[in-house]
Amino acid sequence: METRSITPRMTRDPLELVPELAEVSAALFKATGNRTVPRTTISLVQLRAGQIVANTYLTVLHTGFLRKAGESEERITAVSSWQDAPYFTAAERAALALVEGVLQPSVHGERVSDEVYAEASRQYDDKALATLMMAIGQVNFFIAIALIAKPVPGRSFSDPWA
C-alpha cells in the first residue's frame, strides 16, 4: 500500500489569519462543556460527523480524544455502524441519530424526523438537548475548516498546519 505525503491546503493556521476565531471556538467549547451531556457522548457524535463527511483529520482527532478518555476500541470502531452495535446506550444512540439526521440527506422529508427528535427528547432534558445541538453545531463549524483548509491528520490539535 502506497503512503502519500499529505500537506494542508492552507499552511497558516486560520486562527492567525482571523484571531476572532479564538473567541468563537472558546465559546463553543465552553457551551458544550457544561456537563449536561457526557464528554464521551459529544466525542462519539463528533467522531460520527467526521466519518459522515469523510474527513480523515476530524476522524483521527476525535478517535484520539476517545482513546485518551479510555474508550474501548470496540466502541470507537463501532461508531460507523452504531445502529446494530451493542456498545451504545439509548442516549448515545439518540445523539448519534441526531448527528446523522443533521448531516445526511433524507429522501423522506426532514433530515431530523419527529421520531428522531422525540427519542432524543426522551433521553435528554431541555438543557442537555440544547447542549447536544451546540455540540453538533460545533463540529459543523470545524467541518468547514477541515474540508476547505485540509489540516494534516494525526498532527497536534494545535499545530496541524505546518
What does the model show?
This protein has 8 helices and no strands. Helix 3 runs parallel beside helix 6 and helix 3 (39-52) packs parallel to helix 8. The radius of gyration is 16 Å and the shape is globular. The chain is an all-alpha fold.
Please give the structural blueprint:
Layout (H helix, E strand, L loop, with lengths): L13 H4 L3 H12 L6 H14 L3 H13 L4 H6 L11 H14 L10 H10 L2 H24 L13
Mean pLDDT level = 90
Q: Tell me the strand percentage band.
A: under 5%
Into which percent range does the helicity of residues fall?
A: 55-70%
Unreliable stretches (pLDDT < 50, length at least 5) are none
Distance between the termini: 25 Å
Order of helices and strands: HHHHHHHH
Please tally the β strands and state the result. 0
Shape type: globular
Could you tell me the radius of gyration in angstroms? Answer: 16 Å
Q: Enumerate how many helices there are, as a single number.
A: 8
Q: Please describe the biggest sheet, giving its number of strands, its sense, and whether it closes into a barrel.
A: none
Structural class: mainly alpha
